[in-house]
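Hi R.,

Here's the chain you asked about this morning:
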Amino acid sequence: MKIVLLDKSTLGEDIDLSPIAALGELTAYENTPPALLAERIKDADVIIQNKVKITADALAKAERLKLICEAATGYDNIDLAACRERGIALCNVPGYSSESVAQLSVAMALALVTHLREYRAFVHSGEYSASGVANRLSPVFHDVAAMTWGVLGGGGIGGRVAEIAKAMGCKVLMYRRKQEGEFPLADIDTICKESDIISIHLPLTDQTRNLINRERIAMMKKTAIIINTARGAETDERALADAIKEGRLGGLGCDVYTEEPFSENHPFYELLGYDNVLLTPHNAWGSFESRARCVATIAKNIESFFDGHSQNQIV
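And the predicted structure, written out as tokens:
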């Protein structure tokens, strides 16, 4: 069995791929640009990818391909219609990164709420030592326990963030489709109007695309903080950048973008250096433990599929 890993670099240099290599002949590429995709997968029985966009044109030339393994939970980068047409199965890895993404989401929110970046800069610049004053209390920060945290998405990640927010004393409002659960449900507009912190943990669908748009940003408190560790396209990035630049939002923490990595033409490039903006390189999912779980589950997905007991199969 020929297994091709298209973007090994996205899994990290420290991750052991032996559970996958034990199942067949593994060829691992650091990255795969679109121009090389068709050539690299044409003789594969299984392909594994994380960020590579799998197109119908490339799949048309992969006559041996039986299984695509998404090294993530989301699979919006794969042409599902083409997979169905050609009888190619798709498996993902659900739930492996919930702790990691929740951890970074909360860390971002707390860093912005407490102005850690500004206070750190004050000390590291030498200004604190030169000031002759034992403490500094500007910019002003507030207890997170006095805040309302709006959680968009009640799955594994959103649920974990809600639990942590509740443990810190926040009032938690949740936007989700399912009605059951311990947290009060609210519609998206109510969350935008009432929340001090809004964190996004939804899959990208036609319904969630551009969910946080210019109109909803206008509903928010001027002090509101937005955290996005889901998908960049769930927000209007231009509108978010404008709101930060014009002082109509308190802060922005983002780990995901419509263009990755984003270029100098991206709206968020204009925000580099802003004290109330934390931008990270799509690493929220990537704790060592999460990546090890991901590789182990991919290996199990492949093994189970060829044993006739498929798990985590989407198509």
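The chain has a mean pLDDT of 97.

Let me know if you need anything else.
M.
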